[in-house]
Amino acid sequence: MSLVDTASLAVHLLVGAVWAGAIAFVVTGVLPLARDGELNAAPLERIAGSLRRLSRVAAVFILATGGHLAGTRYTAESLTSTGNGHLVLTMAGLWFVVTGLVEVGTGKLLDGTGDKEVREPARRATRFLQAAALGGGLILVVGSLLAT
């Protein structure tokens, strides 16, 4: 494996793990506080904005590094005809879905914070971000299967 391939893989795995972990943290650590009214609008707005920014930056890195890795390791035929190729396609599909869920979820969180609302925006965002956290976990599982 070349140095570029190794660096791409390391960045891909690191960014993916940080991204999935951040989503899980917001779901388990932030949303319950917001739904219970124990968090003010300003910190919730900042956290939601940070998650959205992180997700967008991660999307660029994951797309670039994942595209490089797929392009150097697979052909169109091997992506569609091998077990590992199917895992790569599954991971890419999950990545698109999770990225969209984070966008929708953070949008719902940010919708009410300008009006100093916390509970209702957190309730509206919960299902989307829970699904994103589940999808992020599935992406890590698929990545682990690819690594073995």
Give the strand content: under 5%
Could you describe the largest sheet, including whether it forms a barrel? none
The count of helical stretches stands at: 5
N/C terminus separation: 16 Å
Polypeptide structure, described:
The protein has 148 residues and is mostly helical. 89% of the residues lie in helices and 0% in strands. The protein contains 5 helices and no strands. It has helices at 3-35, 41-73, 76-81, 83-113, 119-147. It starts with a helix and ends with a helix. 30% of the residues are buried. The model has no long low-confidence stretch (mean pLDDT 95).
Quick overview:
With 148 residues, this protein is an all-alpha fold. The chain has 5 helices and no strands.
List the SSEs and their pairings.
Layout: H1 3-35, H2 41-73, H3 76-81, H4 83-113, H5 119-147
Helix pairs in contact: 1-2, 1-5, 2-4, 4-5
Features of this protein?
single chain; mainly alpha; 5 helices; 89% helix
